[in-house]
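TA notes, week 10

Several of you asked for a full example with nothing omitted. So below is the full record: structure tokens for the whole chain, then the designed sequence directly under it. When grading your own attempts, check the secondary structure regions first.
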């Protein structure tokens, strides 16, 4: 560690050298608040395992993803070790922490707290970027004028939804959907048009590492959920087996992304001439599928730990929380989303379609079709078997491509 990090003079990141792509300690510190937010999301779905709560959880997950990835983009252009940028990150952490405490009641009594904090974070970050960039990077400052305009419109929908309970879900879905369309249109705004693609040139290595760390956060949260649930259950053969299945699923998901794919993708974007379009598709859009897959897997794992054989819950709680259709759907659906996300990610960074992943998705659909014959614990282990086969197929494809093209390390790492 150098003593000069806290006294960075320029608010902009350098465009070359190690500092252009280094993930700073304050960025890692910033990520901690999102560990709590992810825990709140998974706990809400575990407490209320039904389709409406699933829909609400997915909506809030996408909204939180936009909050996190937007901040990652900003710290790609602005130096996180500059005192003013640090102040921005600390302020976002504060409001994000309050927002996270409101997640369990985000669609109830704390809707205005959640929506208010969300709009303050998103709009405040854009205003800060406009001021910080206006002198040294006016074209990027205009980029944030466009982004801020979109956020302001979406913010109206967020606040309106918080104030109108009957229309809340529709207004919040509209807010998330509208903002999700922004990067596709390059935040086209009446009067000033769309942001030129060259303005979105960023450090590919930095955004790749930040996205990988996001997955580490969610995988870490799944370990916390598994450990907590196992500590609250009676020790027995079924609970021990469910604990093993939950831990195995976390390891397999880590291997699917980090064994070969992450490094190859990082090298691909680092060597690209135009990094913005790749970062937009590969790391901004596609990675949310990976986050959702891991989050839902953590929820499914805890439900299996609580009811490995599918026992019914207490009276008055509606559908049994350990019922095979619900838990099997979470298990198979989460793994399928994760495999599909990895396949899309591989393709988006120059690799071929990952056939093993697509076949894995089909296998999981077939597994769900047989769920009436299987207990949740059995479905969990069979889902892990599918993931294991895909991991082995990935590694085999890697070794084969390595022998076929020993001098092309980038294609070797991306190909599986």
């Amino acid at each position: 560690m150098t003593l000069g990090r806290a006294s960075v003079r320029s608010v902009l990141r350098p465009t070359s050298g190690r500092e252009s792509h280094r993930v700073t300690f304050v960025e890692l510190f910033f990520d901690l608040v999102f560990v709590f937010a992810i825990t709140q999301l998974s706990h809400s779905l575990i407490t209320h395992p039904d389709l409406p709560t699933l829909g609400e959880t997915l909506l809030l997950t996408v909204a939180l993803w936009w909050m996190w990835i937007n901040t990652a983009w900003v710290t790609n252009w602005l130096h996180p070790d500059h005192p003013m940028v640090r102040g921005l990150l600390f302020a976002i952490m504060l409001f994000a922490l309050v927002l996270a405490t409101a997640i369990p009641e985000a669609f109830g009594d704390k809707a205005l707290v959640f929506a208010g904090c969300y709009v303050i974070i998103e709009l405040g970050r854009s205003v800060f970027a406009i001021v910080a960039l206006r002198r040294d990077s006016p074209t990027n400052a205009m980029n944030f004028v466009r982004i801020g305009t979109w956020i302001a419109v979406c913010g109206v929908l967020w606040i309106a939804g918080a104030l109108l309970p009957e229309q809340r879900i529709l207004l919040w879905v509209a807010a998330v959907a509208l903002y999700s369309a922004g990067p596709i249109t390059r935040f086209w705004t009446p009067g000033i048009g769309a942001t030129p693609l060259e303005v979105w040139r960023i450090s590919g290595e930095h955004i790749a590492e930040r996205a990988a760390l996001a997955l580490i956060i969610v995988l870490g949260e799944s370990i916390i959920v598994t450990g907590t649930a196992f500590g609250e259950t009676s020790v027995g053969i079924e609970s021990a087996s469910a604990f093993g299945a939950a831990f195995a699923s976390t390891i397999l998901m880590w291997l699917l992304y980090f064994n070969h794919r992450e490094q190859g993708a990082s090298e691909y974007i680092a060597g690209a001439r135009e990094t913005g379009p790749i970062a937009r598709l590969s790391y901004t859009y596609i990675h949310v599928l990976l986050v959702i897959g891991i989050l839902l897997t953590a929820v499914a794992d805890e439900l299996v730990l609580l009811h490995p054989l599918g026992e019914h819950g207490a009276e008055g709680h509606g559908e049994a929380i350990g019922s095979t259709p619900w838990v099997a759907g979470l298990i198979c659906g989460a793994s399928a989303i994760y495999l599909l996300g990895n396949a899309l990610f591989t393709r988006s960074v120059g690799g071929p379609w990952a056939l093993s992943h697509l076949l894995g998705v089909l296998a999981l659909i077939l597994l769900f079709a047989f769920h009436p014959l299987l207990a949740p614990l059995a479905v969990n282990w069979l889902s892990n078997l599918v993931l294991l086969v895909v991991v082995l197929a990935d590694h085999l494809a890697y070794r084969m491509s390595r022998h076929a093209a020993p001098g092309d390390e980038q294609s070797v790492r991306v190909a599986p």
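Residues 206-414 form one domain. Use that as a sanity check on your answer.
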